[in-house]
Amino acid sequence: SETIFLGGGEPLMHPQFEELIDICKEYNFRFIRMSTNGILVRKKISSIGKLDSINISMDSYDSDSFYKYRKGTPKQFDQIIDGLEALNEKGIKFSLSYIVTKENLHTVPKMIDFSEKMKANLVHFHNINPHGSDQFTSLMIQDDDTTQFLNTILERTDYPFDITLPVIID
Fold it and tell me: What angle do the packed helices 108-118 and 144-155 form, to 10 degrees?
């Protein structure tokens, strides 16, 4: 059987999300994965528990950075925190992902601290698409800040989660 990834838009907003998960189970998909913005996690926790993998796209570590990078409100950020707490209460493992740019590279330690506090079991760092924004700059291997970021991440060996590093552009 196959793997299915539910994403593209916000899958938790689909009116038949629960039925979709059941159909995937019925057809014996080997691995059912989903990425979400996390706002509706608490409301959909019973269906989420049927998934094999869930990723919350954070890009932030507090309400201010959530607004800056996602244009989200404090209420939405609180809903995400509540959802992460619900995942922990139910023993559902999850990953957190962050877009890293030259402009926010200095905040990676805060992202790591946030991920530890929220008890993620995997943390993804993604480089911003070089064609995606004129406000943010992709990480380039030639930049000293990028090299320092990589060295800092790799120096530590006691993370309570696995980390995937971004693809760095040459």
Answer: 30
Amino acid of residue 103: E
Closest-CA residue to 165 (of 98, 104, 106): 98
**Class of residue 90 by CB neighbours under 10 A (exposed 0-12, middle 13-18, buried 19+):** exposed
Token output for 103: 């402009």
- Would you list the DSSP string of 115-145? HHHHT-SEEEEEEPPTTS-SSS---BTT-HH
Q: Would you place residue 170 in the very low, low, confident or very high pLDDT band (cuts 50, 70, 90)? A: confident
Q: What share of the chain is helix, strand, coil (3-state, %, to 5)?
A: 40, 20, 40
Strand ranges in 37-121 using DSSP code E only, listed in sequence order? 53-57, 95-100
